[in-house]
Design a protein that fits this description.
mainly beta, Methylamine Dehydrogenase, Chain H, four-stranded antiparallel sheet, 10% helix
Length: 426
């Protein structure tokens, strides 16, 4: 048995159809259609589920954010989207184009089980659910979800706030990345709303992610092949990660913090997985070789880990959605070939089963994803890796093969994801 199969889940074996394996179970359509002259404004730049999965936030273009109760009325495994309950939804008028969304406070599921008394104390304090919105003028507006009231209006960035994330330790620490090339770290518990500034990027910061133990921040910027790692504890630069000359566009930590995934493209797309503790490039996924011969420019837009750490969702110019299971040789699911409405963002529901994607023409689509029970080995690995670093694992007096599994070094170096169209033609 190959070592990577030890940790795989029971994935479906009856993939049906050569064109689509991702059931579309619902769709939200914008009120305003795309501009006929191609001007920006209607794009869904960001979609997010709240940490407990009870709310869905939709950046629906023209400065409007829609807050909807989840599940939406009529969305099920075999249903379609109907109008949600109007009594439960809220509309936030941000006044500027909304590029980034983030719910907070949020807590890693492993942090909830930790013996860290500070984290336990934070989690016991009743804090209202907030939604941070990053705007095109550089402002960040933070709203109380239940009431829809504006709590904070943060200023400091000089241009578009492209991405936002709350630290996953139950605190109100907010990290933002902007077109002004900086990252800013805000503590919303303090009366003084000035931010710690991290400088070093040379262009528009596209994506930021905070490790589950809140020790590191990862960020990528436009037109740069380097991934930046920062210390959230000392607000200092740690190192760059670089494996090729492709341009990085998105990044996300695994739920245990032992992996960092980055999405990049030049003429074709690829996603790389790294060990953030050592900076080592572990393995990568590459675009279908046969597609690469015909599509010369196929950028990837976003990549996200699932909450159980087994799956990656990513969207590219040629398809709205692909989902890959760690260690497999083909996509778990993928959407049809659609050029008229490329995806811009994606996110998993925290309890699994659904992925939401936002598109350039302002739509939101919900896709059914197989719910799996990870192996006991995978659960144990994630619980252990949340608590200890790669260096600590390597110092343990255990067999090398077990160390390889615990540090995700039991996978092959590269995976070429043959698309369903070419896979079925073989």
């Amino acid at each position: 048995m190959d070592s990577h199969n030890i940790c795989s889940s029971n994935r479906p074996t009856d993939i049906q159809g050569a064109e689509e394996t991702a059931p579309l179970i619902g769709e939200l359509k914008p009120i305003h259609p795309p501009s006929v002259d191609g001007r920006a404004g209607c794009e869904t730049w960001s979609v997010e589920f709240s940490p407990d999965g009870s709310y869905f936030a939709w950046s629906k273009g023209y400065g409007i954010v829609q807050l909807l109760r989840w599940p939406l009325q009529g969305i099920g495994w075999h249903g379609t989207a109907q109008l949600p309950d109007r009594g439960k939804e809220k509309t936030l008028d941000c006044g500027q184009t909304v590029w980034g969304l983030a719910f907070g406070p949020r807590t890693s599921k492993f942090a909830r089980r930790t013996n860290d008394f500070k984290l336990r104390e934070l989690n016991e304090i009743a804090q209202p659910l907030l939604l941070a919105t990053g705007l095109s003028n550089g402002a960040i507006k933070v709203w109380e979800v239940e009431t829809g009231h504006l709590c904070f209006n943060l200023s400091g960035h000089q241009s578009v706030v492209r991405d936002l994330v709350f630290a996953p330790n139950g605190s109100l620490t907010l990290v933002s990345g902007s077109r002004d090339t900086t990252l800013r770290i805000w503590d919303l518990n303090k009366s003084d709303k000035t931010a710690q500034v991290l400088s070093g990027h040379t262009n528009w910061v596209y994506s930021v992610s905070v490790s589950p133990d809140c020790s590191m921040i990862a960020s990528v910027c436009r037109g740069n092949p380097k991934v930046f790692l920062w210390s959230l504890r000392s607000y200092t630069f740690i190192r760059n990660l670089k494996s090729s000359d492709t341009f990085q566009v998105s990044c996300d930590f695994s739920p245990d913090g032992a992996l960092l995934v980055t999405a990049a493209y030049f003429d074709n797309w690829e996603t790389s997985l790294w060990d953030p503790y050592t900076g080592e490039h572990l393995f990568k996924l590459q675009e279908c070789v046969q597609c690469n011969c015909t599509i010369m420019d196929n950028p990837i837009k976003a990549v996200r880990f699932s909450s159980e750490g087994l799956h990656l969702a990513f969207i590219t110019e040629d398809r709205e959605l692909r989902v890959w299971e760690l260690g497999e040789d083909e996509p778990l699911i993928e959407s049809k070939l659609r050029h008229f409405s490329c995806g811009l963002c994606c996110t998993f529901h925290p309890q699994g089963g659904v992925i939401a994607t936002g598109t350039r023409d302002g739509h939101v689509k919900f896709w059914s994803v197989p719910q799996v029970v990870p192996s006991l080995l995978h659960f144990c690995r994630m619980a252990l890796r949340f608590s200890i670093s790669t260096h600590q694992v390597m110092a343990l007096p255990i067999p090398t093969k077990i160390k390889d599994i615990l540090t995700y070094r039991n996978y092959q170096d590269s995976y070429d994801l043959l698309c369903s169209h070419h896979r079925w033609r073989q």
